[in-house]
Write a structure and sequence with these properties.
The chain is an alpha+beta fold and 519 residues long. Helix content is 42%, strand content 21%. The chain is globular, with a radius of gyration of 30 Å.
Length: 519
């Protein structure tokens, strides 16, 4: 069907954007198809990705569904099948490993990345260390076969695990199957169930005066309990939970997910997506493609259409799924831990930011930095400019220009106070995200002006001043400047920001001069 706005119904359903060649670009769902499709063609600001999408749309198709929930389910199926360019893509992400129980008379545990439908696999494991520790523990506790040749009598590992001697295997397939069943409980995270089973077997062995077997069970119990005590965080929940946190870098949306099995962190995964990806879209597509849906999903912030997504997840899972945004308690602590992990993951590729955080003793990684510069144009015109750096890179969409309005004559101090006040008054009013670091070009007077403006607004932000000549850095409450070695990444980053601030100010100057000449 050719795109005609009047032919699109106001019912719920899915819509399909296609290019001139009929290639599917994007699949979306809507409560009101006509209203949602029309919103793409109205004159309003979009992000770069959406503008690019709209510029390529030549045709729109749709499918009507019985409800918005059905539209959501249909959307997920279609996205998975067609993988449109502008929908959430999981391609190119890390292919995580699983632990597989092989199909043999005497099965082994092995690491695999490609999984088939009938495989007995557990995971995935994002961290190789976690996977190796689990494999080692299962093999050691339950004395499993580790060699590939089941009939190899000379296998040293089999002999060490009391599986074989010179005459062949000495453990029956049935007895070995019990060992595998226990290993499977460990892989599933059912530690309590496994502990109870080992306790019963230990007591039975003691009653039968089989003290050797009782000692083996006792050692297994101790090892198992030691592992449980070493878990990162432990809660008393008896159900599955996922904890999800996301951060936006200049180029991507980075999402980390912790899976909790009966209160114990059992897995961690990380995804890098397009910067403009909505977390709600990620949640919908992730759980459609990964069928292990927990009873609870813990997030830092509410989702768009959260109640609808809860119904969607519940229908996919076959049980009730709750999305929670904790304000305090253990769940909030776990979210904080996840955000710290995410910050570390992001900062690995940003040594200059880490160096700057350390050099200036900043409370957090300075992912968002704003720098102010005051310039004088002639005897009367004074202007201010601000550059914005995100993850160490300039973000020109967030640059700002200021014509000084409140100051008569030339006063760098009062001008700096004005632009800082105006900038953060607006952010406070709009409830927008504050920067992690504010830098002012100048020395102690400019630092004092910025701090005074922030005090009048009743807010506290990390502030530093960069002296124009010696490239010394002044910080609040310090008598002397901070001198960072020239080879340090922190000073190199500050210099890049300073140079960009000067370039932006000069460009603004030239623009104003050309306007004056025309007048």
């Amino acid at each position: 069907m050719s795109f005609k706005p009047k032919n699109i119904p106001t019912k719920p359903g899915c819509y399909f954007f296609k290019d001139e060649e009929g290639k599917l670009l994007y699949i979306g769902k809507a409560k009101n198809l006509k209203k949602r499709v029309a919103s793409y063609f109205q004159k309003k600001p979009f992000d770069v990705k959406t503008r690019e999408l709209v510029s390529r749309i030549a045709n729109v198709d749709f499918v009507v569904t019985s409800s918005e929930l059905d539209a959501l389910l249909t959307e997920a199926k279609l996205i998975q099948h067609h993988q449109p360019q502008y929908n959430v893509q999981f391609k190119g992400g890390e292919r995580y490993a699983y632990i597989k129980i092989t199909k043999e008379d005497y099965p082994r545990l092995e690491t695999v990345r490609a999984v088939t439908k009938n495989d007995r696999v557990y995971g995935p494991y994002a961290a190789a260390l976690s996977r190796r520790q689990t494999l080692w523990l299962a093999n050691k506790l339950f004395q499993l076969r580790m060699c590939r040749h089941a009939t190899n009598r000379s296998c040293l590992l089999c002999r060490l695990h009391n599986l074989s001697d010179s005459s062949g295997f000495r453990v029956s397939p049935g007895e070995y199957a019990e060992r595998i069943n226990k290993a499977e409980l460990l892989l599933k995270g059912k530690n309590k169930e496994l502990e109870k089973q080992l306790e019963v077997e230990m007591e039975e062995a003691s009653k039968n005066k089989d003290y050797g077997a009782a000692k083996v069970r006792r050692d297994q119990l101790e090892a198992l309990r030691n592992i449980a005590d070493k878990q990162l965080l432990k809660f008393t929940r008896t159900f599955q939970q996922d904890v999800v946190a996301a951060m936006t870098t200049r180029k991507s949306l980075v999402v980390q997910l912790f899976s909790l099995t009966k209160g114990i962190i059992s897995d961690r995964r990380e995804y890098k997506l397009s910067r403009n990806t909505d977390l709600a879209d990620f949640i919908k597509q992730y759980y459609y493609e990964n069928k292990e849906i927990p009873e609870e999903v813990i997030l830092t912030d509410p989702l768009t259409d959260q109640s609808l997504i809860e119904k969607y997840l519940s229908k996919l899972a076959g049980h009730k799924v709750k999305i929670t945004i904790p304000k305090a308690g253990n769940k909030k602590k776990l979210l904080k831990l996840l955000q710290e992990n995410l910050m570390i993951s992001i900062s690995r590729g940003q040594p200059d930011l880490l160096a700057l955080q350390k050099s200036l003793s900043l409370p957090t990684l300075p992912r968002r930095i704003e720098m102010f510069d005051i310039s004088n144009l002639g005897a009367t015109n004074t202007v201010g400019s601000m550059v914005y750096f995100h993850d160490g890179e300039p973000d020109k969409d967030n640059y700002r220009k200021f014509k000084i309005k409140w100051v008569r004559g030339q006063s760098d101090y009062d001008s700096m106070k004005e632009v800082v006040y105006r900038r953060y008054y607006r952010l406070v009013k709009e409830k927008a995200t504050m920067p992690d670091l504010v830098i002012v070009d100048g020395g102690k007077p400019q630092l004092s002006a910025a701090l005074r403006a922030l005090r009048e607004l009743g807010i506290m932000l990390p502030v530093a001043a960069l002296a124009k000549k010696e490239e010394e850095i002044f910080l609040p409450g310090r008598k002397y400047s901070v001198k960072i070695p020239k080879e340090n990444g922190a000073i190199k980053l500050i210099q890049r920001i300073r140079d960009e601030a000067h370039r932006f100010a000069i460009t603004y100057h030239r623009l104003l001069r050309s306007k004056e000449m025309k007048e």
